[in-house]
Amino acid sequence: MYTQAMDLPDPSAKLHVVGQPDAAQAEFDLKIDADRKIEPQDWMPEAYRKTLLRQISQHAHSEIVGMQPEGNWISRAPSLKRKAILLAKVQDEGGHGLYLYSAAETLGQSRDTMLEALHSGKAKYSSIFNYPTLTWADVGVIGWLVDGAAIMNQIPICRCSYGPYARAMIRICKEESFHQRQGFESLLTQMKGTQAQRDMVQDAVNRWWWPVLAMFGPPDADSPNSANSMRWGIKRISNDDLRQKFVDATIPQAKILGVTVPDPDLEWNEQRGHYDYGAIDWDDFWAVVNGNGPCNKERLATRVKAHEDGQWVRDAALAHARKVMARELKEAA
Ligand code: FAQ
Predict the structure, then answer these.
(1) Does the Cβ of 133 fall within 6 Å of ligand 1?
(2) Packing angle of the helix pair 80-105, 111-119 (nearest 10 deg)
(3) Which residue's CA is the nearest one to ligand 1's atom 18?
């Protein structure tokens, strides 16, 4: 998909117009202002490249670590139908990670380097995947709320200025929509069941609501990357605005389900035309981001083990590719 983009930009390209050292920067600025795509072969400012690499690789890490909380329930799904849906969903998340690593590689960093950063604990991934999935209702709530928040955040990234990221997001968002729907439908079924099932759903909503709101990132005033990302068309809507859109879209869905959210300050504000909501515990968010959430250590250990256990697959694929190449060379000789 991205093979056409593997030729890396020449770092000296900015100077190739003799006597006009800023010509490349001016061309980049023009493209951004005109809302045109930046492609891997184009010259780009180093800070733009670094910001993209940071965000896309973190996003890729989130997708593959994000397979774990729900993956834990594949063997315990309550029916064959639910098991098939969950298997497909978790597999999709793995696929999203792969598209995103490919998009990040077009910025000149190898997948091995990115994975090393994840496995050593240097790279971030979404805070949300460091919470436990205690009951089957958690699986539905992840689909409804976590995938719901992910779509809200990711639809604007389909219009990101960097071509490979934008194109990867279009496909990802289509799949995330199915993920959100299946979560909501599963919860709706549980809410039509016994009182114990309804209580289980409400308990899961209570535990996930605040971490999901924090997923959108720190408040705009405390978001160091936002100014540049908005200027460069990487981010199109701010953290706080996306969070508000998510609350406004989700509360009517909660009413249909028959659940409440654990926020005594939640209230429709007629004047603003939005829901007001209570204060998010940012200390808790930063503790999780910095490695001290309920499941950080477990998630990282599981990821590293999966990578190590998969070494033989990578070795076998490489050995096969070498054999094929040797055969082709021999035939061509
Ligand atoms: N968790 O200046 P900002 C999914 C960090 S995929 C951890 O506002 P930015 C699908 C941030 O990196 C979920 N860290 O940063 C799925 C930065 O640190 P740095 C992932 C966070 O980049 C569903 C610092 O705080 N989605 O759910 C978080 O402008 C179900 C300051 O923040 C994406 O990655 C957080 N929640 O805005 C899979 C979407 N928030 O790097 C499986 C793409 C912030 O300077 C199952 N990413 N930080 O050291 C984005 O849209 C942005 O990167 C934000 C953060 C909005 C996440």
Answers:
(1) no
(2) 120
(3) 124
Ligand 1 centroid – CA 183 distance (Å): 22
Q: Which helix (H) or strand (E) holds 269?
A: strand 267-269
Ligand 1 atom 26, closest CA:
59
Q: Is the CB of 229 under 6 A from ligand 1?
A: yes
Question: Global pTM?
Answer: 0.93
- Among 51, 53, 54, 55, which is best to mutate for testing ligand 1, by the most ligand atoms less than 8 A from CB? 55
Question: Would you say the CB of residue 62 lies under 6 angstroms from ligand 1?
Answer: yes
> Which residue's CA is the nearest one to ligand 1's atom 37?
217
- d(Cα 107, Cα 118) in Å, to the nearest integer? 18
Return the H-helix or E-strand segment holding 275.
strand 274-276
**128 C-alpha to ligand 1 centroid (Å):** 10
Q: In a structure prediction context, what are the per-residue pLDDT tens digits for the chain, which is 333 residues long?
A: 333 344 444 545 444 444 455 899 999 999 999 999 999 999 999 999 999 999 999 999 999 999 999 999 999 999 999 999 999 999 999 999 999 999 999 999 999 999 999 999 999 999 999 999 999 999 999 999 999 999 999 999 999 999 999 999 999 999 999 999 999 999 999 999 999 999 999 999 999 999 999 999 999 999 999 999 999 999 999 999 999 999 999 999 999 999 999 999 999 999 999 999 999 999 999 999 999 999 999 999 999 999 999 999 999 999 999 999 999 999 998
Supply 235's token pair.
């981010």
Cβ atoms of 38 and 163 within 8 Å: the answer is yes
Going by the DSSP 8-state scheme, the letter that residue 156 receives in this structure is G
- Which atom in ligand 1 lies closest to the alpha carbon of residue 215? 36
Query: Within a 13 Å sphere around the CA of 284, how many CA atoms are in the beta-carbon half?
Result: 13
Mutate to test the pocket of ligand 1, among 64, 176, 225 (most ligand atoms within 8 A of CB): 225
